[in-house]
Each structure stands twice: as C-alpha cells, then as structure tokens.
Amino acid sequence: MSSKFPDHFLWGGAVAANQVEGAYQTDGKGLSTSDLQPQGIFGAITPRVDGDSGIKDVAIDFYHRYPQDIALFAEMGFKCLRTSIAWTRIFPQGDEDVPNEAGLAFYDQLFDEMAKYGIQPLITLSHYEMPYGLVKNYGGWGNRKTIEFFERYARTVFERYKHKVKHWLTFNEINMSLHAPFTGVGLKDDSSKSEIYQAIHHQLVASAKAVKACHDIVPGGKIGNMLLGGILYPLSCKPEDVLETQRQNRDWLFFGDVQARGGYPAYMQRFFRENNIQVEITAEDRQTLRETVDFISFSYYMSGCVTTDEQQNNTARANILNMVPNPHLASSEWGWQIDPVGLRYLLNVLYDRYQKPLFIVENGLGAKDRIEADGSINDDYRINYLNDHLVQVAEAIDDGVEVMGYTSWGPIDLVSASKAEMSKRYGFIYVDRDDTGKGSLERRRKKSFYWYRDVIQSNGNSLKDKA
C-alpha cells in the first residue's frame, strides 16, 4: 500500500516499568501495589514477607539489561519508546519530602541511552502501580492528600527530565479503576461505587495538576491522558441495544471527557444521582479540571458487543472488561476478539469527539511462541494481526484523523499484566523465561522483528492491504 502515514510519525513500542524492570528492591525502591500482586491484576493481594519471590521481581531484568534492549529497538528503527517511571523508585513510600537520587539517576541513564539512538521517550507517570505506603498509610486515592503527593512526584520528574522527555502521559488506562480498584486507585475490590468514584475524582484532579505542571516546567512539553479503548457495538439494531451501548461506552469515555473537555459531562450527573453515588467536588477542583490534555492516547486490543437480551448476555473475559462476544469475529488464544476495523472506528470516534491529536500507545497480540529447530521463531500470526491493524490506522489517517504515532504493546516479551504470565508473549524480541521464572533471559529476534523494521523503514509502505 502507498503510505498514508505522516513523515514524522512516531513508530515504536510500549512497555511498563513493573512488567519489565525487575530489581524490585534495588537502589532504594519501595514496595508498589504491583509488588503485592504477584499473580497479576486479577490475582489476590499478597503481603510481601522475607524470602518470598514473584515473577515481576526480576521480570525481564530491563533494569540491568536496558542498553542491550534499547540497541535492539534501535535496530528496528524505533522513533519512540513508551515506558513508565516506577513512582516508588523516586518516592519509595510516596510521602517523602526528598526524592531518591538513585532512582532518578537510573532514568537519566535510560533516557540518555535512548537519546544515543534518536529514540524519543513517551513516559507514563503511573502505570498500574503506586507506592504501597500511600495505600497502607493514607487509603490510596481515596484520600485527597494523595493528589498532593502525586503532584510532588510529577513536578520532581518534570524538573529532572525536562530537557530529555517532551512527551508525557498521566495515568495508564485510567478507566480501568472501575474494574480493578486496587490496581487503579489503591482501594479494596469490594469498595462502594461512591468510594471508587471519589478516588477516581481525586485522580482526575491530580492528572489536571500534572498537565499544568508539565506546561509550566517542560519547554515544548506535551502531555496526554491514556484510556483503555474498549469500544462497544450494539449486538442488534434494537433501539434498546443501541441506547445501552451508548451508555456503556460513556462509562469509559467519561474519563476522556473530563481530561480533554475540562469538566464532568451532564450524563454523569444523572448516573451519580440514579445510583446514589456521592462525590465531593470542590469549586477549586472544578477550576483545576479546566487544565486539559494536549493529546489523547489509548490502548486498543479488541472490541465487544452489548445487548439487553439476558439470554444472549454471556460474556467473554478479556483484558479487564467483560464483553459480549461478536459472532462475526475470530479470537486469540486468550479469547480476545480480533477486530482491526474496530481500531479505525475507534480512532474516528475519539477524533470526532475531542478534535485533539491521537496516539495509539498499546496494540498487540499475546500468543504462545515456538522456537524451531534452527532457532527461528516464525510468528506470522503476530505479523498478520499488526499488519491488519496498521492498515486500518492508515485508513483512519485518510479519513482525516490526526494520529501522532503507534507504539505496539510489548516490543519485547514481558510479564503480562492480567495474570503475570511470560507465556503470553507480545514481543518482536523473545526473552528466554517461563511462567515459573526459569530461563537464561537471553534475547532472540523473531520473524516479526524484521517485519516491523521494514514497516518503520518504509513509513508503512510495506504493509499489505488485503482489501
């Protein structure tokens, strides 16, 4: 296909500190909420005791091996790498007055290594983790004081890296707090809706404060939000299904509405009223929320359907959402439905709604890879998945949607978020480690490594449009 991607399109990949770094107690790092979820975000919350271990404690040892990994990303031609800063490397308990210098120094080294190859960092401030000290001592995001601690952290890293990092994100998949409250806002899973939405409100205020801080501190800095793009279709054209689909899509679009439009939408007032949800929102909060993001970023793995027919309402568990399966789509090994056209649809929905630049910061296929006798890994299924999605991104650009970049999820194998598995592989680069933590951690290029290198080098010209 002839390229529809702009000349300065940010091609790359995305990882998260808690899924790749390891070194979970190295150089003064404190315990994070992720460290208490050794089986992933759907697993039990497990207190740490001396001598115990979890797969994320080492992960893929990116903390020590990042120069090798950055070199591999550069070999593919990455223009951009999305990762996160582990908040507990900077403020181990979350409430310290003075940051941890060793943690700050690590990210200096990481960003310098990326700069050697001309790879721009896209940095998430909080990606599925926060200091456990803030949960234990303050009640997590349920406590308004956490806004102050987060703003201190954000301003600290903005000041430190203002000449090295120009693209920032606030909270990863911020809408996931509705489905996994401990991971998102540090609350127990059985918390009331009022408690969860109050914590979410505090997080939205903190996000707006981070946006203002970025604009104040980082010369030429741009900062976005990050949504889990769980777009839903009506299962039928029955008006009740269409209306219910709109309502359920608003459950997650609400987060984008606040962060991109600067206030609570009217439909949420009705939702709060009808569900007896009490949220304290001060006049100062409303003023703070008017500081809006520069761009919208989101993850996209799959779409789903909605029906009001109870007999058809059998759901497929996928990522952190329950979705009714679409009878017209195939599924991955993990039951995630594959819908490339849904990505074009979602891009158009978001651009129509917000009229802000969009950044696809997660998209990929988790699958079991096999090493052949000659050492090769022929992951054509991954190539096909990514090719078909990127073709639809090109179509959206042709529709007039402003797309800044595309960072595939997991350009190197990592520990999956949902169940902390290594066997659910996303990468262009294979890492020799299994679900029990055994393996040499050796890196190996897959077939998709060379495919993605060609896509980037050709600015999308090498993609195959099957239409």
TrEMBL record:
<dbReference type="InterPro" id="IPR018120">
    <property type="entry name" value="Glyco_hydro_1_AS"/>
</dbReference>
<keyword id="KW-0326">Glycosidase</keyword>
<dbReference type="InterPro" id="IPR001360">
    <property type="entry name" value="Glyco_hydro_1"/>
</dbReference>
<dbReference type="InterPro" id="IPR033132">
    <property type="entry name" value="GH_1_N_CS"/>
</dbReference>
<dbReference type="GO" id="GO:0016052">
    <property type="term" value="P:carbohydrate catabolic process"/>
</dbReference>
<comment type="similarity">
    <text>Belongs to the glycosyl hydrolase 1 family.</text>
</comment>
<dbReference type="GO" id="GO:0005829">
    <property type="term" value="C:cytosol"/>
</dbReference>
<dbReference type="GO" id="GO:0008422">
    <property type="term" value="F:beta-glucosidase activity"/>
</dbReference>
<protein>
    <submittedName>
        <fullName>6-phospho-beta-glucosidase</fullName>
    </submittedName>
</protein>
<dbReference type="InterPro" id="IPR017853">
    <property type="entry name" value="GH"/>
</dbReference>
<dbReference type="Pfam" id="PF00232">
    <property type="entry name" value="Glyco_hydro_1"/>
</dbReference>
<keyword id="KW-0378">Hydrolase</keyword>
<feature type="active site" description="Nucleophile">
    <location>
        <position position="362"/>
    </location>
</feature>
